[in-house]
Predict the 3D structure of the following.
Amino acid sequence: MNKGKGKREKVKRREFMRNIFLSFVSLLIPGIVSADEKIKKVKKWILGEDYNPYEHYWGMGIDINKCIGCGRCADACKKENNVPEEPFFFKTWVERYQIYEDGSTSVDSPNGAINGFNIKDDKSKKMIRSFFVPKICNHCDNPPCVQVCPVGATFITPDGVILVDSDYCIGCRYCIQACPYGARYLDPIKMTAEKCTFCYHRIVKGYVPACVEVCPTQARIFGELRKKASPLVRFMRMHKLAVLKPSLNTEPKVYYANFDMEIN
């Protein structure tokens, strides 16, 4: 009697574990499949006959010493990509770092720097240096946002750009939480995740991203990572480079020159 009961319990336990496994797989596989389908959809959606994503691999360089904090990049991005006007929705923004003699650091970014920066006159402590740092989605080669998306709405294209398919996005915010660079937000109207796309609709037509085009000091350099004649490759060859949060192994494709260790 006890032996029969024990066998039934083992069978129930085995069926329970099997059901758990199948449930996990059913959640995982749709995301993988839909990510592949999204690449095909994007090709039909915005890629012309003359553009082959497998022939390109995009990245960006930023020279911190050249950034003057004018905010034209953030303003152009909002207009080009229809980003909500509220001061907490940005696909790119500029931060100001102020380093003081006592070792403290002040970081601010009023309205993403669209209206520039006011001069701070803090007489209580002496400032020893100040600089501006443009921030943007890093279009990582090992993107955590892609890994956590349960439906495959966030995916990486063959040319290295991270995109979001709004038709598939369910607004779960997993990718927003997973991004270590704070480069995503939830669109208040569509209720889907949004981020920088390197102005994908422009680069497939041979144009540079809007933020690169309007920069008056050419602090941003956009180009190919795998072509020696690319302006980005030349930039990388001539500067000592750093990426944000390298310890996370996300393998960013946005490279900073004249990087200060106070930057986070």
